[in-house]
Design brief:
The chain is built from ten helices and no strands. The chain is mainly α.
Length: 211
């Protein structure tokens, strides 16, 4: 199995749920768009379920059937943003010479996309931080999408080794931590770049070809 196929398999491994009808999917899209718009303007506190319902033209009870809480909604919003990033990155793959360079380039592109919407980024990261066990399926989906993005970026000819998959998990944790420290003003963009490039070197260090 190629790395790309592995990434697709990981991304597709969402918890089983009945497929939405075309109308339901359109409604869900409106809800997620309203959530992102409100978060972009005022961050986590600006996303109020009643306002989301009004902005997306759905009944408040309907909104709660799709998303039981604001945390569920914002984690789903992050999932949606990552799916858009994944599509963009696949259309314009990273140009680095090594898997580590391609991974670092991809994660910095994703980071800069979030940097352009700092209030939205803060709202989504806070939702992930606040998520309890009831939000585990949505959080797991965010993690799988991040893994898929990294695996696609690596561009391996063969399936990743268990050691490389372990490295990917460490990279995920570092990227998430870098987002938090940057959003809190405790790290500069330059420092984030250094940390991302450093942790992505684990991919090359765990490569089967590495002595």
């Amino acid at each position: 199995m190629t790395a790309e196929a592995k990434a697709a398999e990981v991304a597709a491994a969402d918890p089983a749920s009945p497929p939405l009808t075309e109308r339901q999917e359109a409604r869900r899209r409106r809800i997620l768009h309203a959530s992102a718009q409100l978060a972009s303007r005022g961050g986590f506190d600006a996303v109020q379920m009643r306002e989301v319902a009004e902005s997306s033209s759905v009944a408040l009870g309907t909104l709660y059937r799709y998303f039981p809480s604001k945390v569920h909604l914002l984690v789903a919003t992050m999932q949606d943003q990552l799916q858009h990033m994944h599509t963009t990155i696949r259309k314009r793959p990273p140009a680095g010479e090594t898997p580590a360079e391609r991974c670092a380039e991809t994660l910095m592109r994703a980071f800069r996309a979030l940097q352009r919407e700092p209030h939205l980024a803060d709202a989504m990261v806070r939702a992930l931080t606040f998520a309890d066990r009831s939000v585990s399926p949505e959080v797991d989906t965010v993690s799988r999408l991040t893994t898929a993005i990294i695996l696609d970026a690596m561009g391996l000819a063969d399936a990743p080794t268990p050691e490389q998959l372990s490295a990917v998990r460490v990279i995920e944790h570092t990227w998430h931590s870098a987002l938090i420290t940057w959003l809190s003003g405790r790290a500069s963009i330059a420092q984030v770049k250094i940390d991302i490039e450093m942790v992505c070197r684990l991919i090359d260090l765990t490569s089967p070809e590495t002595p």
